[in-house]
Write a structure and sequence with these properties.
Blueprint: H1 9-16, E1 22-28, E2 37-43, H2 61-74, E3 77-83, H3 85-91, H4 93-106, E4 114-118, E5 128-132, H5 135-138, H6 140-163, H7 169-172, H8 178-187
Parallel strand pairs: 1-4, 4-5
Antiparallel strand pairs: 1-2, 2-3
Helix pairs in contact: 2-6, 3-4
Length: 207
């Protein structure tokens, strides 16, 4: 994937309209077979530019770690929240993703004046918001949130791998790779797996 630097144009325009604390919000892990969906919200400081912020999917793990450190040091505020596998199974992945994003936004201190959300609008959020299509590649605050969410989730999946290495979470982070599907067929689902995410190839091998 081509790396494209996210711009501050939209945030700057919103500040000219009187929204000083502009948060970006994004989530990761929607398509995974195991693990939580993790959301982050970030209010960047307009006076502390962070070079290199872009869509987390277009950069290496080492670059994400470096940018995570810069973002969490220099942002006016940041937060993360998650919806675990059990909640995803109970309310579905779309609603669980929105729940995680709402929790992340509401955990910010101070709260934002405006939230820019990647693609969606967050229901029941009593703060001005705007959905931005392809926001993680267009908007620096959303791109920053995508990096914080991705690093947070990857670190959690590495911890799960350390406690149960059978599934190879250190390599695929819970996504439905061939390696992961083979491990599930061999060992069955763990408490970390989403029961509602059953690839057709596993239907005959799972209860």
């Amino acid at each position: 994937m081509v790396r494209k630097r996210a711009m501050r144009t939209l945030e700057n325009a919103m500040r000219r309209w009187g929204f000083y604390r502009v948060a970006g919000c994004d989530e990761v892990g929607r398509g995974c077979l195991a693990g939580p969906v993790v959301a982050a919200a970030v209010i960047l400081d307009p006076d502390r530019y962070i070079p290199g912020v872009c869509d987390s999917k277009t950069i290496t793990a080492a670059e994400r770690e470096r940018l995570y450190g810069a973002i969490t040091r220099k942002a006016l505020a940041w937060s993360v929240a998650a919806s675990p596998a059990g909640e995803i199974d109970e309310i579905n992945i779309h609603r669980a993703s929105l729940q995680a994003m709402r929790r992340a936004v509401m955990a910010l201190a101070p709260l934002p004046d405006l939230v820019l959300v990647d693609a969606f609008r967050i229901p029941d959020l009593l703060i001005a918001q705007r959905g931005v299509l392809h926001g993680d590649s267009r908007c620096s605050a959303i791109a920053a949130a995508s990096i914080v969410a991705k690093v947070t989730r990857d670190r959690e999946m590495l911890q799960h791998h350390a406690s149960d290495p059978r599934y190879g979470y250190d390599r695929h982070k819970g996504y439905a790779t061939a390696e992961h599907l083979a491990a599930v067929a061999r060992h069955g689902y763990s408490p970390l797996h989403r029961r509602s995410f059953r690839p057709p190839s596993l239907f005959d091998t799972m209860d």
